[in-house]
Every structure is written in structure tokens, then in C-alpha cells.
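This part of the workshop introduces the protein records we will be handling. As an example, a complete record with its sequence and its C-alpha cells follows.
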Amino acid sequence: MYIYNVTSNVEESIHEQWLVWIKDHIPQVLSTGKFKTATLTRVLVEEDMGGVTYSVQYRATSREALDDYLRDHASILREDVVKRFGDKVLSFRTELQIVDEYTVNFK
């Protein structure tokens, strides 16, 4: 399994507007059929640059699905955030391969 992680630092002035937008954007990404699930998280470490930072982890079932997304869908979906928010949102993307997963059950 692969994780496509998008970390975004959002200026305070558009934070609430961006949060509404991202909750609509995530289902659009999932509707491409290339990801199984997505998790939206807020980064709790304060950035020197200010703003509020979030991470979205999209889980792809295969490398091929992730590559297909990047080739066929990513640029179109990325354009939307640029058109709406310009340089008020700074994002970087990381591709991760899950090596192992562990769980524990407490009694």
C-alpha cells in the first residue's frame, strides 16, 4: 500500500474558507478511484512562518494507482487550489510506501 501525503500551510486570513474547500476537495480526489481512503489531520507543531498546517494522507492500493493519479488527475486538481487561494496556501507532497503495519489490542 502507498500513501500520498499532501501537507499544506494555510494563512490565517483564509483558514476557515480553505477548511470548507478541502472537505469538498478530498471527495473529489477519492472519486478518481485511485485511492481507498483519506485522512485529514491538523499538524500540532507551530510553524515559524505562521498559519495553520494540515496534512491529508490518501491511501492508494498500488503503485500503479498512485502513478495513474499523478499522471491523469493531479495537475487538474492542484490548479483549483492555486486559482482559489494563490500563494496563501503552500503545499508539498510526499509519496510513502507502507512497509509494515502493527496494531495492539488492550484488554
